[in-house]
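Case study 2.
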Amino acid sequence: MSAQIYYFSGTGNCLFVAKNLASYLDGQYINISKRVKEKEIVLQSDTIGFVFPVYAYTYPKILNDFYKKIKIISNPKYVFIITTYGSTPGRSAEKFSKKLKNLFAVNYINGILMPENYIAIFKLDNDSAIRQKINDALLTIEKISADIKNQVQYLEKHNSPLDYIKTGLVSPLFNFFLLFSHIFFSADKNCNGCDICVRVCPTNNIEKINNKPKWRNNCIQCMACINWCPQKSINYTPMTKKRPRYTNPHIDLKELYKE
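Prediction:
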């Protein structure tokens, strides 16, 4: 089965998932943050997949820009959504599925627990927990791949009152807060002007001024800049100064830059 798998990834977790799914499904894994810069995005496979992280119980807002540029050549026969999350997915997949309904039906929704990467608020996993979560994720990816090959109809549901509150209340507040998040980023004296933060930012939100990064107001809180910084010079409020960084250990920067 050939599939087009569109993924968005900041620290490598979703790229890791998409890459492994593509291997099982003999498909392509395609970087949303690169394609969203194009005039239109043509979907032309019988099997279409979307892999994205959960941000504050919803999908990353870059997917709204991606959605607006989708052009359908022929309706896909099977569409799946896979989310990655550090605690709970909320109703993120259901919310994006509802948006896609204007284009085509979604046949399969599932989620994969991955190592925590939201350094702005949460304590990140230790090395042992990271290894365990990734090993568990590989087993889940294998099962999900089998489901997709067999075109299983499955829509993972998160319909508890708490899920509705998280996605319905927390998510809008988070997206509003994004307008001001640039205020909290900074780079200390260890910054060597390597440009990695500029290159990994999926929304081109970072520019270099006087050999130092400066953040604008189009941040989506993917935490790519702070986690990929080789000097650990980037911080998001003083709270992150002593926190470890996380990038998926099976993904390198060259893959993250992949078109």
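The radius of gyration is 18 Å.
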